[in-house]
């Protein structure tokens, strides 16, 4: 398994947000579909090429073994221990090459997501889920390549669905030539339940394991599967889901628009909001979290 990646291979995108901007083009907010589709057709956009390259790397290197290796390493949580709010500050040290005047920092995206959930009157643990959902992106600060932190997630250990974005890039993934992994079910049983399925490694799975003893199950589903677009948007993996997953995916689907469409031009007032969120964090989480 390849382990040494060049800077270009580690960071094809100018910023992690480029992946999310591309998601917005693929899954535009219903009211803005016409405009977004027009922009989507603009293939001259050089950012589209970096997204393509990003998915090429992601689909090539996210193998079954790669995922096992990342889990064995990161789920030891032996890197850092800090209070949640300090983790937000840490996450905000993720500097990227994009224009700082127009890009919101990581905490602002988290607060816009959580504030949109709060404004709709949802339970407080749902609001907290909005605040925490991308905290796993600290993986980037531990030197992980972008394609092992963000990007649509998909099951490894079985044949990838052609509903996954840029499916042609799976050709270069060694698992596609491995008969243990290249059939419809691969290493899994029909409808075995997603808890028995390994998804490609990234910020969702990492956060799920960090939070699994502290948050309600519905919140954990939203954290763990919010980047699993091939299922929550495309329904491509019904054959691996069990009835409980299907029930819980209502939450994943409910969460997704808050993640994608809550970006507002006015940045949230962090200072004003902090006391409310400090209380909310204290209600559900221990004073420090291990990373
Ligand atoms: Fe995310
Ligand atoms: Fe997000």
UniProtKB/TrEMBL annotation:
Source species, domain of life: Bacteria
GO BP term, example: inositol catabolic process
Keyword terms: Cytoplasm, Iron, Metal-binding, Oxidoreductase
Organism, as annotated: Siphonobacter curvatus
Protein name (database record): Inositol oxygenase
GO cellular component: cytoplasm
InterPro entries (UniProt xref): Inositol_oxygenase
UniProt KW Nucleotide-binding keyword: no
GO MF, one annotated term: inositol oxygenase activity
Cofactor(s) needed for function: Fe cation
Main location, first listed in the record: cytoplasm
Compartments reported by the entry: Cytoplasm
């Amino acid at each position: 398994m390849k382990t040494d990646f060049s800077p270009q291979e580690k960071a094809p995108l100018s910023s992690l947000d480029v992946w999310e901007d591309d998601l917005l083009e693929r899954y535009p907010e219903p009211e803005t579909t016409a405009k977004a589709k027009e922009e989507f057709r603009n293939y001259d956009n050089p950012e589209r090429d970096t997204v393509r390259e990003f998915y090429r790397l992601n689909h090539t290197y996210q193998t079954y073994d790669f995922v096992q290796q990342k889990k064995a390493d990161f789920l030891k949580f032996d890197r850092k221990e800090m209070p949640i709010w300090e983790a937000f500050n840490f996450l905000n040290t993720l500097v990227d090459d994009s224009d700082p005047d127009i890009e919101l920092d990581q905490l602002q995206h988290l607060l816009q997501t959580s504030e949109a959930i709060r404004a709709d009157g949802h339970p407080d643990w749902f609001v907290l889920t909005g605040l925490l959902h991308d905290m796993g992106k600290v993986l980037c600060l531990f030197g992980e390549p972008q394609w092992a932190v963000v990007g649509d997630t998909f099951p490894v250990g079985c044949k990838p669905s052609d509903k996954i974005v840029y499916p042609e890039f799976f050709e270069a993934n060694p698992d596609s030539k491995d008969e243990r992994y290249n059939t419809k079910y691969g290493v899994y049983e029909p409808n075995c339940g997603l808890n028995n399925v390994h998804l490609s490694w990234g910020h969702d799975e990492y956060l799920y394991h960090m939070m699994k003893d502290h948050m309600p199950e519905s919140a954990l589903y939203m954290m763990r599967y919010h980047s699993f677009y091939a299922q929550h948007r495309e329904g491509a993996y019904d054959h691996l889901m069990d009835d409980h997953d299907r029930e819980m995916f209502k939450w994943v689907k409910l969460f997704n628009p808050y993640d994608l469409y809550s970006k507002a031009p006015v940045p949230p007032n962090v200072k004003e909001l902090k006391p409310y969120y400090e209380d909310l964090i204290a209600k559900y989480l221990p004073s420090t979290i291990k990373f």
